[in-house]
């Protein structure tokens, strides 16, 4: 139960941080002259604290419901870790109502709301970029948020495939693959995606490529 709660809380925290980063990118591109005034130390501290607080609070109700189950069919689950869906499917209680509530009350507000809050700033960013007259300016503005947008698309694609299906049990074998990609591949890709914007990293890659040739 502790592993399930921590995984869900840290996953929700990651989505909240990505939402905060999308707002940061919106201010940087759409209001560049006011960036340091809007995104000051106090604002960043409040946003970071709110992400941590909400991340650990929003996972309390589903964790409390699952921990109240009376018995389980086995001490083993059909998954790589104690995710909430395979834990529910391993219970000998009737979990059909709980699964529906988990989908409607739990996943929709958390994942879908944060998805909307993340992509609304990006819709405004795209409009602002299209209004830039020069091609160089448009590329520079898009380059500012390209890494974050790539990570967001990767993460939400796997999350929607893994959780946003009404009949969670019927696709359990597929969710294992999505979970493996979400918990292993995406974290390994994050440093690579973000570091490609670093000039020193790009110079080192060019030197290595020339040596190989």
In short:
This protein has helices at residues 2-30, 35-38, 41-57, 60-67, 84-89, 96-130, 135-163, 172-195, 199-212. The mean pLDDT is 82.
Estimate the global geometry from the Cα principal axes.
globular
Task: Tell me the number of strands.
Answer: 0
Which band does the percent of strand residues land in? Answer: under 5%
Residue stretches low in confidence (pLDDT < 50, at least 5 long) are none
Major sheet details: none
Strand-pairing-aware structural class = mainly alpha
Cα distance, first to last residue?
53 Å
Following the backbone from N to C, one meets helices and strands in this order, namely HHHHHHHHH
**Average pLDDT reading:** 82
Q: Specify the number of helices.
A: 9
**Residue share in helices?**
over 70%
Rg for CA atoms = 20 Å
Task: Tell me about this structure.
This protein has nine helices and no strands. The longest helix is centred in the middle third of the chain and has 35 residues. The termini are far apart.
